[in-house]
Every structure is written in structure tokens, then in C-alpha cells.
Amino acid sequence: MIFNTLFRYFFQVLSLNLWNNNLIIINMARAMFDYTKTVLQKVSFDSKLFCKELEKAISRLLPYEVDELKVWLNSFTTDKPELRQCMIYIKK
């Protein structure tokens, strides 16, 4: 009886820790994506630097974040044709 209670308590604590760790990882990934967008906005004055930062971002982001970045880039570069040349890095 005591063993069963201890086992259930241990399992609940373990489950909670695993859930919290996954939540932290998801939040960190989201923070990286938001940071990437901020950097790209700040360097958008120079297309060469923008391409360089975009290339770094693609290598660091998760695949689903790269897909999300594509959508954001299409919207962001609509009025900045000089940055559209960097989209080739996304299509690789």
C-alpha cells in the first residue's frame, strides 16, 4: 500500500517535470523565432547583411519555424524588393 502510494507520487512528479521541461523547450524555441524576426527587421537596411542573418537563422531554427519564417518573410518583404533576393536561402 505504501509502495503503491509512493510509486504514484513519484510518477506524478516525474510527469510534471517532463511536462515543464517540454514547455520550457517550446518557449525557448518561440523566443529564438521572435529574436530572429527582430534581428532581421533591424538589419533590413542592408540586403547583404539581411541575407547573411537569414542564412544563420535558417540553420538555427526548427523546420516548422522555418516554414513560419517563410510566411513572415513574404509579408515583410512585400514593400522591400531589394530583400526578395534573399528568399533563395529559404528555398534550399
The fraction of residues in strands falls at: under 5%
Order of helices and strands: HHHH
Average residue pLDDT: 80
Major sheet details: none
What is the helix fraction of residues, given as a range? over 70%
Task: Report the uncertain regions.
Answer: none
Tell how many strands the DSSP assignment holds.
0
Shape: elongated
- Tell me the distance between the termini: 59 Å
| Rg value | 20 Å
Secondary structure category: mainly alpha
- Our count of domains comes out at 1
Q: So how many helices?
A: 4
Explain this structure to me?
Helix 1 (2-42) packs antiparallel against helix 2. This protein is elongated. The chain starts with a helix and ends with a helix. The protein contains four helices and no strands. The protein has helices spanning 2-42, 47-60, 63-76, 87-90. Helix content is 79%, strand content 0%. The protein is mostly helical and 92 residues long.
